[in-house]
Amino acid sequence: MNKSIFFKLLASYIGLLIVAITIIGSMQVYLVENYLIKSKEQEMVVRGQELSNMVMPYLMSNLNPRPVILNVNRADRILGTEVWVIDRFGKVITASADHLYCEGNTLEAMDLTQLQSGKVSIKSGQSEYFQEAVIRVVTPVIHDNEFIGGVILYSPVRGVNDTSKNMSKIYVGAALLGILISVLIGIIFSRQITKPIKRVCEITRNIADGKFDERVEIQSKDELGVLALSINHMSKQLSELESMRRNFVANVSHELRSPLTSIQGYIDALLQGKGKDKQEEKNYLQIVQKETHRLSRLVNDLLEISRFDSQTALFNMDDFPLRSIIDRAMKSLRLQTAAKDLIITTNLPSDLTLCYGDEDRIEQVIYNLLDNAIRYSSDGGEILISAIPYDNDILVEITDFGQGIPSEDIPFIWDRFYRVDKARSRNEGGTGLGLAIVKEIIDRHGGQVMVESTPGEGSNFGFTLKQYGNEIDA
């Protein structure tokens, strides 16, 4: 991974650099060549105007300006320029010694028309009179607003090309040096990027192997820094989940072991004939039955928790009367209530509106909270169930007057398998999952759970439900 990303980054960086240098270099060479040619043309125009003034007296007197032109040619050829002279008809009347055969030739009609209007004619390219590309500038000779002839200047483009080539060589050398320096910078830059990515890969592999204590140390505030924070957060969350998983497995194993051990012990006793009489054997079977029921409740609660965790728990949302499900929960727990001689009092307004939610799930909530209140109430005590409007919700409260909950335990009572009095809970048959299921169900309904408790005076558990007409998506 490291080599792949490193070389991809480096190759991309160098490729873009070469493309950029090539484009910029080509544009610079083109612009410089164009500038040099334009400068040369302007220089020749000025020179042509000077020569036009020199040959004007000869053309006015119909004299051959050869002596002047030969002198001029000798001087200008040192500079790479040749000078010819034409008459009013565009015919060459004087040329350099190397091009005397051109005397008598005539300019093209288009060029002649341009000169007759007083304009300078400028052309660049190959010429039939020279073996290379040249710049040709023809300057008109005007006297009393009348065209009487012109001066032709030829200059090879070779000088411009040589300058351009020299500049290109310098530019290529500078570009190669720049590329070399840029490659070194690119290597350093690519390593700075790939090194933390490599570290991120190592950390993620360790996380995949179950090592959640390692952290990515990237201090930058760019995307890599955000990635590092995300991975560290994920590692922390996975560590917490792993701890919860281990605790969950340990708790489940412990909770299953207790009833299974009890069931196994009493069945062994029955098989070995240790029951002294039919009544004792019946007691053994009742204990086995009780533990079996407890085991069944634990398995059902575990399945319910599993559905919540896997997001497969189904909710059938609709309106329903709260009073009816409270009555059903009270009837389901009638035996437990009678066994402890408890009195359950309901305080429900006669005009209580319908609730919105999953009726069976809310009945399970009330059942769990009422069962919890019965279990922790003293014999002959009282339990109060009330419901009142609460903003757009309905607040349901179940109050007992039993042993209460210490303040340090209250933040944890909604956790799975958490028990305030572990020994008492097991003896009474609790699974330690009832309140956790209550919170999961109410959370899915968009409500809140709450508890207030004073040790020795009792506890008040409450939850909120949406009133009918204030529905939420489950």
From TrEMBL:
GO CC term (a single one): plasma membrane
Subcellular location per the Swiss-Prot or TrEMBL entry: Cell membrane
GO molecular function terms noted in the UniProt entry: ATP binding; phosphorelay sensor kinase activity
Membrane topology: Multi-pass membrane protein
Source organism of this protein record: Desulfitobacterium hafniense (Desulfitobacterium frappieri)
Enzyme Commission identifier(s): 2.7.13.3
Xref: PROSITE patterns: HAMP, HIS_KIN
Bilayer-spanning residue ranges: 12-32, 170-189
Keyword Phosphoprotein applies: yes
Domain HAMP span(s) in chain numbering: 191-243
Record domain Histidine kinase: where: 251-469
UniProt keyword annotations, A-Z: ATP-binding, Cell membrane, Kinase, Membrane, Nucleotide-binding, Phosphoprotein, Transferase, Transmembrane, Transmembrane helix, Two-component regulatory system
Main localization category: membrane
Database matches in SUPFAM superfamilies: ATPase domain of HSP90 chaperone/DNA topoisomerase II/histidine kinase, HAMP domain-like, Homodimeric domain of signal transducing histidine kinase
Catalysed reactions, semicolon-separated: ATP + protein L-histidine = ADP + protein N-phospho-L-histidine
Protein name: histidine kinase
